[in-house]
Amino acid sequence: MASKPVTVGDLIHRVASSCLSNRLPCNYTIRDSVDSDLDDDPFADAVSSSDKCRRSPSAAELEEQQEEEEKLKIWEEGGQEERKAAKGDAEALMAEVFDAVSGVRRAYATLQGAHCPWDPDKMRAADAAVVAELRHLARLRDRFRRSAAAGHIPRPNPSAPPLREAVAPYEAALDDLQRQLQSKQAEVDGLKEKLAAATSRRKGRHHPSKPNGPGGAPTADLFTTCAEQARAATRAFAAHLLHLMRAAGVDVAAATRSLTKIPVSSPQLAKHALEAHVTRALLGGFEHESFYLDGSLSSLLDPAAFRRERYAQFRDMRGMEPAELLGVLPTCAFGRYAATKFAALLPPRVEEAILGDGEHRRVVNGGTHPRTPFYGEFLRAAKAVWMLHLLAFALEPPPSHFEAGRGAEFHPGYMESVAGAPPRAGAGMVVGFAVAPGFRLGNGAVVRARVYLVPRGGRP
């Protein structure tokens, strides 16, 4: 081969054979025989340089590339794990929130169940449970805020509706439940007043002769007992009237101001103001022998016979139910008194707002008396005042009544505060308005007037 001359054709043949015997592109190998043939080839340098350009990556380069790919993969997997962990924390927190809300609902349902029947022990336990659940919710809220600030939980979308809009229906429901609770509380107060009045009537019925003097004559002690019963009856009716106002959705403060002309700023003040209005309406004209229903002057023509007749009426009427009496004699003296006082007690617009219509007034103006629970409550208060009036004109001398004026100094011997505890000496309390008049009897005894006290210079 060495002595054989090399021609251009031989070179072309060798290059073509070398190209056809290798893989394309780049990842090719040159057979050993060809390589050995190319050793003496003048184009070997050119073929070698071309092979260097097209050769496969080295092992070191492949390992480095694989390491970079693995690092990138680990980074992506770490981000996915963090996102999964954050998502898991958010889901766990939401599950706890839903459980806490369910706990609040269960505790509040228990609290409602303790209202009817009324159980103070269950009320306290249920109230403590509600407070504990609400505190748990507050802790979850603080945990959410800390997690959101640390970036563990994504912040809420600003375009989402605010939490206030979601909570608004529940707040409205809570306000409605609070109004219902206040209405129930007023109803409970009214029932307590009725119980006190019924207890007083039962005691008087079971011991009719105890307060009486010799021969069954009226006494000052009997008058004092009847005065307390009349006050209890008027308080019970005022509480019932307040309950009806709240149940009807009437603005209690505005309605009370309209009826009494007293500025009312609290439910307790509204109760006393309504009691003052009921008492003033029922006792109006008490100083006259017939409440000015007619012009009779029997007490002047024959005073002794008039007193005996009044006391006989008192004893006869004492055990009667007022509705039964008016069912038989609707136009008797007591029937005329009840009809007149009912018209003075409730103006037409107030009656329609509370009772829904003016049917009571139409029946009363027609000469009869309604058979409704509301009118029955009114008749019990009216009968108590009527009985006190009969007994007052059966006494000799008849008791005189007095009323404390607004701004008058408080005198514990003649007045009692409706708040219960008497003011301290030098406290500077004066009469804000009179709730019930007082009476001074012939033997010197005093039935103290009931007053609502305010600081000097203040308003009710």
Automatic annotation (TrEMBL):
Top-level lineage group: Eukaryota
Compositional bias of kind Basic residues: 200-209
Segments for region (Disordered): 35-67, 196-221
Domain GIL1/IRKI C-terminal stretches: 402-452
GO biological process: negative gravitropism; response to red or far red light
InterPro entries found in the cross-reference section: DUF641_pln (IPR006943), GIL1-like (IPR040225), GIL1_IRKI_C (IPR056813)
All copies of domain DUF641, residue ranges: 90-203
Pfam families, A to Z: DUF641, GIL1_IRKI_C
Protein name per the record: DUF641 domain-containing protein
